[in-house]
Every structure is written in C-alpha cells, then in structure tokens.
Structure prediction request, 594 residues.
Amino acid sequence: MISVAESGGARVKTAASAARRDAWLRRLPLLPAFLYVVLVTQIPFALTVYYSFFSWNLLKDDSFRFAGLDNYARLLTDESIRTAMLNTVVLTISVIAISVVLGLAVATLLNSEVFGKGLMRTLLIAPFLIMPTAGALIWKDTLLNPLFGLLPYLLTPFGLGRVDWVNQYPMASVVTVEVWRWTPFMMLIILAGLQSQNPEVLEAARVDGANAFQAFRRITLPLVRPFIELGALLGSLFVVQTFDSIFMLTHGGPGEDTTNLPFLLYIVAFQGYSIGQASAIGVVAVILTTIVATIGLRTMFSIFQVEARR
Amino acid sequence: MSANAFRANTQPVGGFPTSKVLWSVVGWLVVFVFFFPVLWMWLEAFKTEPQAASSPPTILFVPTLAEFQEILSGDFPPFFINSAIASIGSTLLVLVLGLPAAYALAIRPVKRTQDVLFFFISTRFLPFAASLVPLYLLARDLHLLDNIFALALIYTTINLPLGVWLLRSFLLEIPHDLFEAARVDGASFATEILRIVVPLIAPGIAATSLICLIFSWNEFFYAVNFTSSTAATTPIFLVGFISGRDLFYAKLAAAATLASLPVLMAGWIAQKQLIRGLTMGAVK
Prediction:
C-alpha cells in the first residue's frame, strides 16, 4: 500500500479509503458482540450511576426525586453497608487463602507418584461442578444439621454432638462450603503449573544435594507462582460475588453476620425496593472490583502472554 | 510434599516404593473428604425418607428409586426444561456472536485488539450490582420478567466475554497460511468461518460450550430475581427445600442429584477443556 501511495495524488485517496474500508471490514465481525455487550452492560451501568443520585422506592408511585449525594452519604454512615463490606472482605480473603493452600497441597499430591491419579482428579473436581445451591443444601441439611446431620453424629464422641454449626458459626460454615467448592478450582490451575515443570531440573537439584523441601521452595514454588496468582485472582473475582451459598445456608444471618455486598444489594433492591440506594451500592461495588480487576488481570495476562510467546 | 519425587525408587516393598503407597493413602483420604458430600448426596437420594433422616445415620440400606420417581413425576421437569432452554440458548448465542468477534481479534486483528479484549473481560467481572437494577426495570417494563428467553439473553452477557477470550486463544493456534490460502482461493468470510475455523477449533467450541453450560446452568442470582414461576430454573426448585418442615432429606438429595447431573457429567467428560476454559485460555 505504501508503494501505491507514493505514486500519485489520486491514488493516495484511493489507498486511504481502501485502508479505511479494510479497517471497517476487520471490525465488522466484532461489532455484533461488541454492541451486545455495550447494550446489556454499559448502558445499564450508566443508568445505575444516574439512579444512584435519586431517591426512589419502587412500591411508591411518584416517589422518584433527585437526592443528590444522599444515597452515598448514607453508605458512609449506614451500619449495614460497613458490615457487608467487612463480611465481603473476610469471606473472600479466607476462602481464597485457604483454598489456595489446600489446592497447592492437593495438586502436589496429584503430581507425584500415586495410584489412580486420573480417578482422583475426576472425583476432586466434583465439588466445583455441583450446583452451588444444591451443594449448600446438602451441607446444611444432611451434613451440618444438629439433629440428623452426619457431622454432629460423628463428633458426638468428642463432645461436639449437638452443635448447630450453621447458626453458631455462620461465617465459618459459609467459608467451609465455599472452600470445598473452590479448592478443586485452585488445584486444577496449580496442577497445570506443576505439570509444566521439567522433572530433570528437580533431578539435577537432587544430585546437587537439595532436600525435598528446599527443591520445592526454591524450584517448584517460583515456577507455579504465576499459576497460583492467576487462580487467586480469578477465584477472588468470583468469590466476591458469592450469593448462592449465603442465600441457602444462612440467608445473610443470623442478624447480618453473613450479609455480604451482593446479598445486601438483593435485600435493598428486592426486599426494600430502594432503587436509588441499591444503585449507589452498585456503583461502589463496581469501583472496588474495577480496582482489583484491572490491576490484577493486566499483570496476570501479561505474564502468561510473555510465556506463551517464548 | 514432593518428597516422593525424590524417594520414588529407593525402598521397594512388594514391588512398589513405600513412598508411593504412603502418598497414595494420603491422597485417597483427601479425595474421600472432598468427594464425600457428593457421595453422601447420592446415598441419601436412594434412601427412604425415614432412613435419610435417621440418627445414627443409615449406612446399609436397600436402594430405592422412589424419591427420584416422586421428583420426576412432580413439578420438577418444567424447571429442568427451563434450565436447558436458558443454557443451550445462551450457549448458541455466545458461539454465534463470539466466533466472528474472536476472529476479528485473532486472525485479521482490528486495531487496539488488547483494549477490546480487556473491555470484554472487564464486563464479565463487573459485579451484577452494576447493571442489575436497570435491567430489572427494563425487563419489568417490557413484560419480560419471568421469561426464560430474557434470562437466556442475560446469561449470554455473562458468558460472551469468556467465550470471546477462549475462542480467540484457540484461533491463535491455527496456522496463518491456511487463511491466506482460503482468501487466495476467493473464499467468502462465511465460508472461511464454516469450512476452516469451525472444524479446526472444534475443541475450542467444546470448551466454550462447557464453560457456558456450567455458568448458566448453575446460575442463581439472576434466576431468583428475574423469574418467579413460568420461567424458574432448577436452582429455584431447590429453594423450595429451604423452608420445608417435614422430613424431606431424601427428596432434597434426589432433587440435588438430578439438578447437578448435567454439569457434573459434562465437566467429567470434558475435563481437558475445563482448565483452559476456566482460565479463559491462559492455561493449557
């Protein structure tokens, strides 16, 4: 195209319009998906921002009026939102931390010489595939139920027989169910990292006199670190949105002990019908998530893309 | 824990290294703990109600299909069918919209491809709080609340970003010469997609369908807020068990087993595609 452009004024124009046409031809296949996503996510988000400046109860006619920053001011003073934020942070950090550690341990086991590796892996991913609402119900009613559950029965000899786990330790119960669900996810990603390791390097370390722990810390761990980070990042983006298991296990309670941001939003929007207040919560949630996601995802995928190119 | 990698061939006992036996035992114990809730769900599903709610728990029993029969002959099937419509519908839409988009980001890339990619993925991790209220109001005004096709459209939004990323990662692996050759032969865009792209990235299409299926089949938040009766999906059926008063554990377990079956089977069959799908193509 450069050679065409050099050969005369009239052709420069044709070349330029050809280039533009080519650019549009390239964009054309992208447009339907792009427009769809803009239509269903960006425009509603703009409306969410708009609504967040209004006071509006859906059940009361003519209650739509401008409220300035009232909704945001209430977020700062409201006890519920602070509790929900704290619960979201506690839940996300504990679930991710525990499931990464367990996932790393299980992946290491699966990467070593054991009998029936394939079947082990197959069975281990089941908790991730089970419908979260179904999993939460099974935990609540058949495993943790103080009267008929299996766990209280098994713990009777230890004097913990009639503990009502879900009511007495609500957050720990939600964390347990979520760890059960996310450990397989972490395991799968970390295992992929472990399997990309060259066994000869470990062999060489052994010859050089490194013990198993040293080899794990100095060779294996740095290698799987990006995989752990990827798992933790993707996992936390999902766990921040935890709703199903809270709805089924505790319904946010007792009190507000397990109410996280998504559950609070559900309560405010669909039990209280406070559209303006719910929108303000939405805006804050978006800002918080965007900070984590943009920094995290960019770093993460640049690491993996560099590796893929090599 | 990788100790065994070093001791593997040192102390053979009965033909197997001790460490292998030891770590296998540890490994299977871990597997048992994690798999147990699933196993217990299955066991409870085959019991009678008194057996399922007995203390001490019933371990030995004659399996019965009674609870499954009751669930299947009751009001469960419409929920299941709704889930199937929403999942399959949104998966097809993701492929129809996502494949051309992935092509435009991989084979003949548009300018600022990276920015477009990150735009897509940022919408996947936008909290549902971002668009929930306006979408709800829109659905209400258009009389699309409790409409299964509206739910399928929402699931398409959830899955499309993952689909675009995933399909693109598979497209990048196709040798570029193939497309050059097709274009020289005068193949149209549609021919190029249907004759070259689709057959070559069949595993990518499988991975994308699997991920779409997992996320839309198991989805609960939008289902509980956007549907009530006619369009309610399988997870909503399970909500009915929260407030049950009588002994209902066997029925609950049977319903949970049936509800989880499609995703569990698909995930087990397509294990290879699972990691790649979950990491949007970053980990192979």
In short: The first strand of chain A starts at residue 54 and ends at 55. The longest helix of chain A spans residues 275-309.
